[in-house]
Amino acid sequence: xxxxxxxxxxxxxxxxxxxxxxxxxxxxxxxxxxxxxxxxxxxxxxxxxxxxxxxxxxxxxxxxxxxxxxxxxxxxxxxxxxxxxxxxxxxxxxxxxxxxxxxxxxxxxxxxxxxxxxxxxxxxxxxxxxxxxxxxxxxxxxxxxxxxxxxxxxxxxxxxxxxxxxxxxxxxxxxxxxxxxxxxxxxxxxxxxxxxxxxxxxxxxxxxxxxxxxxxxxxxxxxxxxxxxxxxxxxxxxxxxxxxxxxxxxxxxxxxxxxxxxxxxxxxxxxxxxxxxxxxxxxxxxxxxxxxxxxxxxxxxxxxxxxxxxx
Length: 311
Prior knowledge:
By secondary structure, the protein is of the alpha+beta class. It is 34% helix and 31% strand. The protein is built from 10 helices and 12 strands. It has helices at residues 2-14, 31-41, 45-58, 63-75, 79-88, 97-109, 113-121, 132-136, 139-142, 148-161; strands at residues 18-19, 94-95, 178-184, 187-197, 202-209, 214-222, 230-237, 242-251, 254-262, 268-279, 282-289, 298-307. A 10-stranded antiparallel beta barrel has the order 3-4-5-6-7-8-9-10-11-12.
């Protein structure tokens, strides 16, 4: 429990705190504040209470000090004093969703469950809060797990921290995940291992041909290029060959990409790539290329993926 709290405190300062007007707090921390912060990191809570009381007496506009004072009061089981300290935080112009989390802990200690839920539901979750683990890391809040209001807040925290996991578009290509034997015209062409990574936002392809040549691709939903979210694939082979596919979207049972490569003369050569979701254990991959600017297309690779046992 202690370690979880230390991580969250660090996140509150590094990730979850900002001034109301958007300006950073540029004043260097005083020696007294740094000493109090060291007590927080060491979880010496009674001493931290005294240290932060000294800091706020000298620096009444230090919102982080008020926040940490309130947290220290929560840790020593003085929720009334904690809530009084938390009331001073907005007055300093400091905003942080961790204020709501710490307030909820104080309300929970007082048995004021409805108030605890109210402040938690007022949070606008963002990445950096730590997801549902932040809430579950505090025993005062973890006891609410399984109740509708708490679970809804936890789900919102989780979705903000890991937006790809529940995003329907990000899940469109999951049928390609696994370990595969790949056949062309009935002969083994190679093996492919496709894994989910980076918060379930990215598929990493690891290809090894029957001749032991290798290549990899990154596949992700591009949220910056298109008004509608579209898939991208960037492929690099061990011989330096690269392929760039974009405008990927799932339709008619297949993930479909557009792309291009370049001729030795430097001319752009249009490409198409599709992955047909044939069955849970079968995927068909088809590359097409146009040598006349898109007027006609020829198939350059037609591979059948068969899932390897156990994957």
